[in-house]
Design a protein that fits this description.
InterPro entries: Glyco_trans_1 (IPR001296), Glyco_trans_4-like_N (IPR028098). This protein is α/β, with parallel strands linked by helices and about 375 residues long. The protein has 14 helices and 14 strands. The protein folds into two domains: about 1-170 and about 350-375, 3-Layer(aba) Sandwich (Rossmann fold), CATH 3.40.50; about 190-350, Glycogen Phosphorylase B (Rossmann fold). The strands form two sheets. It has an eight-stranded mixed beta sheet, sandwiched between helices. Strands 10-9-8-11-12-13 form a six-stranded parallel beta sheet, with helices on both faces.
């Protein structure tokens, strides 16, 4: 079985690129011949993993949203595929791959990547309405299946009137070299944020929590913000730290590799304060490190309290404050137990191996060589 994907595998593309790469890695480990076609990497960026070995197409003249010249020639040079997989929406190169598949009477899958949540569609609403009418809805309607990462995402997709099969397959997380390590001792109570620094992420709520709880948390308690992105929003966060006279809020910036692993390992808890997230790779990243997570109910993470590895709460300021304080009051040993529970959840349901198997099963069903998996909804 040969599959050709379209997407991005550069570090600066963040979570979607990581999920795409781990999906491909999981498929390759299951013996599926898998390639990816992607744009050239910009100077200052890098490939997410040297083992990825993508095929680069010619850079569009007018940016990543633009039509890619001679795209079909690039795809044809890879060889015949049994099925094509479009990782994400809006980008024209994804639609070009779908059209190539239709032209050659081959099935294709589209991964939504959270882009059809109501909140996501509301951002640049007019532009997205135009793009949907011009090409995106046609690409989705003709897909053999669409991948959603959770039931909630599938429901949002269905609410827009789409009728094709939906496979609910979460994003995979790399566990190799991480999940079997002992959870390190935590010399101080450290709260963490991990991800893109952007106004939608509502990181200021964690800064306000540190101000509100300064008399209730120990003197060495700390908030560590890991990530980069919107410079003006980051300046606002720094200004708020100064205004509130906080000395226990640290900005680590954008980290990768061992530096990122060490930063996550140092956390007592991770907090995700945004109003909504599609899946939240940051949750699985924390859990694989044995770090319990506080996630808002705008995320599909009901499993956290169910498996005693975190909290699923309203993301108003008072709820965030009280849950952080409750986590501190548990003590290090109980937090460590929650961390072990989180690792077990990841091992069973979110590992590269487990989700590589699911994706392979989806492809085999589409190609008519296996029965419909239980995670596919017609």
């Amino acid at each position: 079985m040969h599959i050709i994907h379209s997407g991005h595998l550069n570090v600066h593309s963040g979570g979607p690129a990581l999920s795409t790469w781990l999906t491909i890695k999981g498929l390759r480990e299951k013996g599926v011949d898998t390639d990816i076609v992607m744009p050239p990497i910009d100077p200052g960026d890098q490939l997410i993993d040297k083992a990825a070995k993508p095929i680069y197409y010619r850079q569009p003249k007018y940016g990543t949203l633009a039509y890619v010249p001679k795209y079909d020639e690039t795809v044809k040079s890879i060889g015949d595929a049994d099925l094509y997989h479009v990782q994400g929406v809006w980008m024209l190169h994804g639609t070009q791959l779908a059209r190539y598949a239709m032209k050659h009477r081959k099935p294709y899958v589209v991964t939504l990547r959270g882009m059809f949540y109501p909140q996501a569609l509301a951002h640049k609403r007019l532009l997205k309405m135009i793009m949907r009418r011009l090409y995106q809805d046609h690409t989705l309607c003709n897909a053999a299946a669409v991948q959603a990462t959770c039931i909630e995402e599938m429901e949002h997709y269905r609410a827009l009137g789409f009728k094709n099969p939906v496979a609910v397959i979460p994003n995979p997380i790399e566990t190799e070299g991480l999940i079997d390590r002992p959870i390190p001792e935590k010399p101080q109570f450290r709260i963490g944020y991990l991800g893109r620094v952007h106004p939608r992420k509502r990181i200021e709520r964690l800064i306000y929590a540190m101000a509100d709880l300064r008399e209730k948390l120990p003197d060495d308690a700390e908030l560590l913000i890991i990530g980069g992105g919107d410079n003006s929003y980051e300046k606002f966060l720094h200004d708020e730290v100064c205004r509130l006279n906080l000395s226990n809020v640290k900005f680590a910036g954008f980290l990768t590799g061992k530096e990122k692993d060490a930063a996550i390992d140092s956390l007592s808890i991770l907090v995700v304060p945004s109003d909504y997230e599609n899946f939240g790779n940051i949750v699985t990243e924390a859990l694989v490190h044995g770090v319990p997570v506080i996630a808002s109910t705008g995320m599909p993470w009901q499993e956290l309290p169910k498996h005693n590895c975190g909290w699923w709460i309203s993301n108003d300021q008072n709820s965030i404050n009280q849950t952080i304080l409750s986590a501190y009051m548990l003590g290090e040993n109980k937090l460590k137990t929650m961390g072990e529970n989180g690792r077990e959840l990841i091992r069973r349901n979110y590992s590269v191996e487990a989700l590589g198997t699911k994706m392979k099963n989806l492809y085999e069903w589409i190609l008519g060589i296996a029965p419909k998996p239980e995670f596919v909804f017609i």
